[in-house]
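Per reviewer request, we include the raw input and output of the structure prediction for the construct analysed in the revised manuscript.
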Amino acid sequence: MYNMSYNVLILLTPLLTVPYISRVLGPYGVGVNATTNSIITYFLLLGTVGITIYGNREIAFIREDKVKRSKVFWEIEFLQIITIFFAYALFLLYLWYQKQFRIYFFYQSFLIIAGAFDISWYFMALEDFRKTVTRNVLVKLASLIAIFTLVKTSHDIGTYILIISLSQLFGNMTLWPYLRHSVLKPTFKRLRPLHHLIPSFSLFIPQIAIQIYLALNKTMLWKLDSVTASGFFDYSDKLIKLVLAIVTATGTVMLPRIANLYAKRDFKKVREYTYNSFDFVLAIAVPMAFGIAGLATALAPWFFGRHFTSVNTLLMIESPVIILIGLSNVIGQQYLLPTKQTKVYTYSVTVGAIVNVVLNIPLIIFWGVQGSMWATVASELTVTIYQLIVVRHQLRMDKLFINCWKYLFSGILMFIVVYMLNISMKITVVSLSLQIIEGLLIYGGCMLILQPSILKHIPLILNQRRKG
C-alpha cells in the first residue's frame, strides 16, 4: 500500500493539473512537453543503465548485513553518478545541434540530473516504503501550488516544464538525510563502482525496450504525424499509467521479497507468492481496464477539455494494456528478475519493443495516433504471451489463471452497464460518480456470487493487520 501510494503520488501531480494545463497550454503546448520529455527519457535511461532494478535486487540479497549493504550501496550510487554525468555530457552535445525547442529541452534536462540523486531503489530493497512516500508529499504539493500560481497562459510552457523537472530533483534529494542511520560512511579505497557496470548493463537492454513503449511512441508521432498527436497520446497514456501505478505496485514490493527468498532457496514460497500476486493483479486490473473503457466516451472531453475529445477513443484502445502490463509485471519483475532469469526477461521486452517499432511506422502513417495506440497494445500482448510460454514449465498455468474467467465475466458485465450509462447520461461530476459506483457494485456483487479464491485472503490480511 505504501508503494502504491508512492507510485500514484508520482503520477498524481501531473494528473491533477491535467484539466487545468490542457486548457491553458492547449494541445500544442501539451505536445511540446510530451515530445521534449520523450527525448530526455533516452538520456536519463542511458544514465541509469539499469541501476534502479539492479540496485534494488542486489541490496535485497544482503540487506541483513549492514557492512556489505553499505559498501554495495555506495558502489552502485557512485556508478550512477558517473553514468549520469556521461549521459548529461551527451545531452549537451545533442542540445548544441538541436535547434527546435532548445530552451524546453534544457528545462527538461534537470530530470537527468535528478537521476544521479535517485536512491529510492535502496529503500525499496529494504522494503521501507514509508520514507519514499512521506518525504515526497510536501514536494509534490509544492509543485502543485507552483503550477496553479505561475502557469497562467499558453506562453508558460517553459515554466510548467521547469516546475515538473525541478520538483523531481528536489524530491530525490529529500531521501538522502535518511541514509545517515541506514548506511555506514564510505571507505573510498575499498569501493569498486565499475564492478557493477556489466551486471547492471544486463538490465539496461530490457530498460531500453520498456522505454520504447513510454517514449518512442511520442517521438515517432512527432516525426511522422504532429506535435499535437504526441500530446493526445501522452494524455491518454497518463491516465492509463495512473491506473497502472496501482496495478503494478506489488511489483516493486515483491522483487526484493522474492529475491530474498530465492537467496535462501525457499523456492516453494517463491511460487506461492507468485500465484497469489498474479491472482491479485488480475482481480484489480480487469475492473480497472473495463472501467476506463466504459467511462472513456464522457471522461476524456470532461476531464481534458473539448480540444481533447479524440482521447476518448485512445483510452478505449489502450485500456487492455492495464491487464497485459499487470500480468507481465508479475512474471517479469516479480519472478524472472529476482530469480536471476534476466536473459529471458530481456528477450521478452526486446521482442515487444521490436513489434512496437515495426508496427508503429505503417500504423501511424495510415491511422495516426490511433495506429500508434494499437501498436502499443500489440507489443504488450507479445511480451505477456512470450513470458507465459517461457515459464510454463516452472509455474502451473491452471494456478495462475484459476479465477481469470470470474474476473473477465464480472468485468465485461460491468463494462456493458457503465458504457450504456456513459453514452446516455449528461456529462457531470455527479453522473460520472454514479457510473463509477454502479460499476463497483456490479463487479463487487459478481465477486460475492462467484467467490474467487482472493476473497479467502482478505480475512488473513485483516488478521495480520490487527496483529501488527
